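User: For my dataset I need records formatted as: sequence, then structure tokens, nothing else. Please produce one.
Assistant:
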Amino acid sequence: MSAPPKDNSEGHTYGVVYANDSARAALAGRTTFPAGSVIVREKLSAPDAATPQLLAVMFKRAPGFNPKGGDWEFLTVDGSLKKITARQKKGSCLGCHSRQSERDFVFTLPPVSPAPGGLRIAPAKVRL
């Protein structure tokens, strides 16, 4: 898969996906994510952007936290990384992620592209 177009005319976004060890194992094995999994997507305006536009964060909580949403909690953080702008169990985040309910509400990652702008997954040390 090639890198998204640089002009962003097709609605592509750029970013890096970070995952803690629990989430990385589930992403690699395409299995259900255990409680404690954390996935963070850094949304960039361009492949070479120095700061993110925002962070989209998913926390997998204990069973019963959010049964209709696979027990995920969704957050968005502003680009300055100083303010949580939304915290949801449902709403716009779940509205989109519900299309992936058979994958535990997590979108699959495209193949990593060596070209600038390709999506990368990086390890993250995140504690709840």
